[in-house]
Amino acid sequence: MVFPVAQRWLLAALILAWVASAVSSSIDPYFLDVVMGVGVSVVLASSLNLINGFTGQFSLGHAGFMAVGAYTSAMLTTVVAPRLGWHPVLLQWVFFPLSLIAAGLLAAVAGLAVGAPSLRLKGDYLAIVTLGFGEIIRVVLQNMDMVGGARGLTGVPAYSNLFWTFGTAALTVYTVWALLNSTHGRGFLAVADDEVAAEAMGLDTTRYKITAFGIGAFFAGVAGGLYAHLKGYLNPGGFSFDKSIEIVVMVILGGMGRHAGVVFAAILLTLLPEGLRELGSRSVPNPFGGAAWSLDWIKEMRMILYSLMLIVLMLMRPQGLFHRSERRRRGA
Amino acid sequence: MSASLLQLTDVTIRFGGLTAVSSVTADVREGELAGLIGPNGAGKTTLFNLITGVYQPTEGRIEFAGASTAGAKPFHLTERGIARTFQNIRLFPSLSVSDNVRVAFHRHLEHRTWQSWLRGGRFHAEEAELRERTRELLSLFNLERVQEAPAKSLSYGDQRRLEIVRALATGPRLLLLDEPAAGMNPSEKDELMRLIRFVRDRFRLAVLLVEHDMKVVMGICERIHVLEYGRKIAEGSPEEIRVDPKVIAAYLGD
Amino acid sequence: MTEFLQQLLNGVLLGAIYALIALGYTMVYGVLRFINFAHSDVFMLGAFVAWYSVEKLGLPTQSIGGGLAALLLSMSVCAVLGVVIEKLAYKPLRQRSTLTVLITAIGVSLLIQNVAQNSRLGFGPNPKAFPALFPSQQLHFGALTVSTHQLVVLGVALSLLGVLYWIVHHTRIGTAMRAVSFNATAASLVGINNDRIISFTFGLGSALAGAGGVLYAMNYPSIDPLMGTLPGLKAFVAAVLGGIGNLPGAALGGLLIGLVETFVSGTRLSTFRDAIAFGILIAILLFRPAGLLGKLKVEKV
Q1: What is the CB neighbour count within 10 angstroms for residue C268?
Q2: B203 touches chain C (CB under 8 A)
Q3: Which strand (E) or helix (H) includes residue B60?
Q4: Do A67 and A139 contact (CB within 8 A), yes or no?
């Protein structure tokens, strides 16, 4: 039997994350931040892949769901938690995960609210509606004084650690994997392939699409909660269209609907900007003598490279960079 | 005479000003091999779409196994026992051959989607059983050898057959075939006719066939309904249809 | 009452600009069936071309001739740019899925925005004050105050709409455009060069967007590389509201969005005005997905 192995992998990943978080105090804080950011990206990209890749929809509002989750859990830990008088350890290890679940659930509700009515729409229309929804969330947050409005929400406790970020990442990866490697889960792929045929084969396509939206939004919400307790502050501008695009690019680069590819792309695209930033702070010797050439410009080129990459990828390899290898495995 | 499995009574559908199907009354009996023919644009595929719930009739009644199908969506009707193939093959191209069939089997599963997440004993038992049933079904149609290949990589004939296999996996009592012989050569057509008879006998279901190829229709159908301009102009055995003056006029006239 | 008329006028002006942008979306959708995300950035570039023509080329400000020259220059540059974008990014994708083209369009949009924000390659991220292109003066009609700039916006927008109507309905190429948008395959069968029509459509739509950018900038104090995003999205909503692919629909949709937004701005909900357009979009897609003047298509099974 193959399947129990997967659960063992999940368990192993969780234990590893636990051990890593226990020794994290000896890790360079900057490096630690980057690594935790990778975990959050993996959650975001895998969950969006469920919607955009496996079920063949196209959401441009993932940052919106993320925002719902981020603000929900941050409000819980900054406003509700202090009144409980719990011990800090309890707060981080009991209250915080509960707040993440609440974040996920509220985001899922938002996901269902957007998903249910807009599922009749296809492709670019759905993209626009989800984009519009993300913008509405942002505008609403900007206008809510309770959460700091446009100034943002500060003083969010740093509860995110290696265990929570990587544990969630492992759980998300497992969930998407388990869902797809089942007969029910193949239904998602069937809906993506041909909706009319799927309906004719007895698949309730609407339910499948809503489920994908709900689960995807749930994990985006959890990722938002992790993000909030990683950064320590939130502002609505951080959940703009650009953030959604960033997640979309991960999914596209990994190859829409390719699980391992998308996880890999999420890791790569989170590390890449850090690498570019590092590179940008250096300079190369001037071969003609004189002052060394600064590589400062690289920092500014990040988003330009991103967008160029997106265009070139679509023109040359619309199936994503890591397409071929996994396709073979899925057939087996 | 056996009972009607599918009964259409005065079924009409209009798209804007266009009446695509007009007051059609017809039936398909339990276990029958029925044919639906007519010139291009006669409304055959529209009728299929009405029967399978893709469209709702503007007027009239459709009953399947004694119950009205009004308001039912295609997947409801599949659950109630109507399966179909499509005129222009609609497989799940990126799924493997066996996954195409497995997905169609899904309504026989006892476990729910969330149980795929827990992966308990029941999940594994059911999935294993399903794999076995899928393999059996595929081997009946000699598709077992390609079961891991993506559906889109199959030859045209194999794709047509896989579509029938996939429809059978839903466990239908009525199978609708939309131009199954399209694009086939004479020997493939003979093979198809054998296949359709085999399917009917083996799975004890009724078949309703839309087909342009007269040899196929006349060769296997026990009863034929003829449509022209959305109206039914004749019904009867192949012998009766062959000599019906209205049918001859429809095909040869104007 | 005066208050109402003043708002009505502002709404119509804003709506006219949205209409100009919306027409570009709708025309491109008509011939290629996809949402040209980069359209809003062409709009932004339109404003910047006018800014450059004054600041760097030294066109006179506060003059009718200078203003018109800047406007025409903007429109021409944008038209060329639209054609180039289509040729480089979209044409190679002609047979691909809608999603591939949509993602490419998003890529193009991000590329333009980021190059524009880069201080070495583009304009830099900081807002720039936009000069008064035309002679500016406040005119009083009773209690109603109208600036000459507002009159220019109205005049230019209406003339462009008229010109567009004439091109689409009374020229050979306009007829060909309508044919391609009705049925591209059939159009190519009767000898229409689809690629040429598509190029022309992009050029035309981009020129209108460029003009929209200049007119928009004239009524706002400053311009920046991200200024296109929101008006672009709202104009897109306008196109959907009117029925995408439908030219009068786009104009009507633009007008309605402009009016609604202006009147909402005058109420306590003014901070939500950017969310209104999206609310309208979601409502229209749910209740009348074909838009006000559009026709619904049924998928063939």
Answers
A1: 7
A2: no
A3: strand B59-64
A4: no
- Number of helical H runs and strand E runs in chain A: 15, 2
Residues A225 and A156: beta-carbon distance below 8 Å: no
Distance from CA of A4 to the nearest CA of C (A): 37
Residue pLDDT tens, chain B, 254 long: 457 899 999 999 998 788 899 999 999 999 999 999 998 888 899 999 999 999 999 999 999 999 999 999 999 999 999 999 998 899 999 899 999 999 999 887 888 888 888 888 888 899 999 999 999 999 999 999 999 999 999 999 899 999 999 999 999 999 999 999 988 899 999 999 999 999 999 999 999 999 988 899 999 999 999 999 999 999 999 999 999 999 888 887 65
Closest to C132 (Cα-Cα) out of C187, C60, C213: C60
Interchain contact, A200 vs B86, CB within 8 Å:
yes
Check: CB of residue B20 under 8 Å from CB of residue B55: no
Between the alpha carbon of residue A318 and those of residues A254, A330, B71, B150, the distances in Å are 10, 19, 40, 19
What residues of chain C score a pLDDT lower than 50? none
SS3 readout for C88-149: HHHHHHCCCCHHHHHHHHHHHHHHHHHHHHCCCCCCCCCCEECCCCCCCCEEEECCEEEEHH
Q: Determine the residue among C90, C100, C110, C286 to mutate to test chain A binding: the one whose Cβ has the most chain A Cβ atoms within 10 Å.
A: C110
Kindly list the structural domains of chain A, giving each domain's residue range(s) and its CATH number in brackets, ordered by start: 3-280+295-331 (1.10.3470)
- For C220, phi then psi, to 5°, come to -125, 150
Alpha helix ranges (H) inside chain C: 2-32, 39-55, 64-85, 98-117, 148-170, 172-182, 184-189, 194-218, 229-242, 247-265, 273-287
Determine the Cα–Cα distance for residues B11 and B225; give it in Å rounded to an integer.
14
Q: How confident is the model over B18-29, as pLDDT tens digits?
A: 889 999 999 999
Asked if C201 and C176 touch (Cβ cutoff 8 Å), the reply is no
Q: Distance between CA atoms of B7 and B65, rounded to whole angstroms?
A: 8
Helix axis angle, C64-85 to C194-218, nearest 10°: 140
Q: Do C301 and B54 touch (CB under 8 A)?
A: yes
Residues 114-143 of A with CB under 8 A from C: 117-118, 120-121, 123-125, 127-129, 131-133, 135-136, 139-140, 142-143
Q: Work out the angle at residue C102's Cα, subtended by the Cα atoms of residues C99 and C108, and round it to the nearest 5 degrees.
A: 145
Interface of B with A in 155-184 (CB under 8 A): 166-167, 169-170
Residues 6+ apart with CB under 8 A from A12: none
Torsion of CA A199, A203, A205, A206, to 10 degrees: 120
What is the C-alpha separation between B100 and B104, in angstroms, rounded? Answer: 7
Q: Which residues contact A305 (CB under 8 A, 6 or more apart)?
A: A276
Task: In whole angstroms, give the CA distance from residue A21 to residue A170.
Answer: 14
Domains and CATH numbers, chain B: 1-81+171-254 (3.40.50.300), 94-169 (no CATH)
Question: 3-state DSSP call for residue B70?
Answer: coil
Give Cα A263 to chain centroid, integer Å: 10
